[in-house]
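Case 288 in the screening queue. Each case pairs one protein sequence with one candidate compound; here the compound is nicotinamide-adenine-dinucleotide. For every case the pipeline is the same: read the inputs, emit a complex structure as tokens, and attach any notable structural observations.

Predict complex for case 288.
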Amino acid sequence: MTPIYDRVALIGLGLIASSMFWAMKRGGLAGHVTGYARSAETRDTARRIGLCDKVCDTLAEAVADADLVVLAVPVGVMGQLAQDIAPYLKPRATVTDVGSVKGHVISDVAPHIPEGVHFVPAHPLAGTEHSGPESGFATLFDNRWCLIVPSEGSDSEAVETLSRYWRGLGSNVDVMEPDHHDLVLAVTSHCPHLIAYTMVGVADDLRRVTDSEVIKYSAAGFRDFTRIAASDPTMWRDVFLTNKDATLEILGRFTEELFALQRAIRQGDGPLLHDYFTRTRAIRRGII
Ligand code: NAD
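Case 288 output:
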């Protein structure tokens, strides 16, 4: 297959960037891939496992010849990173990101993108609870959605080429507005993570049940429900700090529903509980 981009630079060599690399290799989507990570230890690991055609020790070297630059770092540092790479970007290059929040990332990154360079934000709806350069795998994006969230003035040809690239990585592609993206993700991803973290916190706080009992007797509910609470704390701290409005709105609604169910339990209102679980089970069964 003819590469979609001649040269790609991956910045931040964690789960998402490493999976992109293996998927790019599988699909022949890039001629040459450079990588940069902040820590020397991550760069050494990347070299050891053959992640990227070249792992660079400086940002400047990693992005200098790139046709596509992928920002794959926590959302809280995207703006600073964009500022740092700006002087080295090639004219007509495309800068994209994979951040889980879009409104905040766009307002942080867009002002640093030089004239003549395209900025096309994106978010692959794929992940695991693992992180770091060794956690990636080529099939992560297969049959998952990637949302392209063009910022004001995103070049339509750059949007089309990036969409083709994501389809090559295995994803289905949709285009979405930033505010709508952040609300949808607050309900489908961000708040579920917060609630999973909270459930583990509750178990930890319960003095009459020891941590070793929680681990030993972890029944399907706790085990399935809290898997995502093993996710990277820096990434999730940044998600909540940067998607404040939408996550607070969804948490407000969640709290109202929880209070209603709490009252139904106290009052022994079986029909209410049964109706609620019947309705929500039908919705959940619609998700494969
Ligand atoms: P990760 O923790 O596996 O990797 C992040 C990498 O960025 C690490 O190697 C870290 O050292 C590096 N890094 C941090 N600050 C940096 C800086 N200032 N400069 C250079 N490198 C820096 O995380 P990940 O899961 O690959 O997430 C990366 C991005 O993808 C995040 O913005 C996240 O919101 C988004 N995302 C994650 C998932 C998921 O489920 N993990 C899914 C979709 C999108």
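Case 288 observations:
- The chain has two domains: 5-176, 180-285.
- The longest helix spans residues 178-205.
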